[in-house]
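Thread: "does anyone have the structure for this chain?"

Original post by V.I.:
We have the sequence but no experimental structure in hand. Need at least a predicted one for the grant figures.
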Amino acid sequence: MTATATAAHADVVEMGHRTHLTVRGYEIDALGHVAGTVYMQYAEHARWECLAAAGLTVNDLLGAGIMPVILEITINYRTELRFGDDVVIGCVFAWGERKTATITQRIERGDGALAAEVTLLTGLLDLQTRKLVATPRERLRGIATAPELLGV
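Reply from O.Q.:
Generated one for you, tokens below.
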């Protein structure tokens, strides 16, 4: 692998699936930068985009009787985002041995500066039993068209 290919591979591993957007005026707070709650919306949007890229729509998940749930979420703010900034949000899954995964999402400005990092613990909720699915990786592999985007 060339140095350029190695760097590109490392970047993909670090960011996973990527969602691109531009900061809109209504997302700015009185301080002139993106409001803190909007970062969480960016991360949520990127997770759903990742699921869609993996071939899982809301209807697919409902049809399978499952939905992702957030069990814990943390955000670390690093540098501000301002109106008009290009933003890239990564989505990387790391599955545990049992029912949960950790998703790490780097929110970066277009220039590569880390604006925030969101880390969350997630699982799949069985919509009938209202309990976490015991084998979430297997369930996702069975219905996703690109399960590698979900780390399964």
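V.I.: this helps a lot. The beta strands are 17-22, 66-77, 86-95, 100-109, 114-126, 131-132.
O.Q.: and The domain at 3-146 is CATH 3.10.129.10 (Thiol Ester Dehydrase; Chain A).
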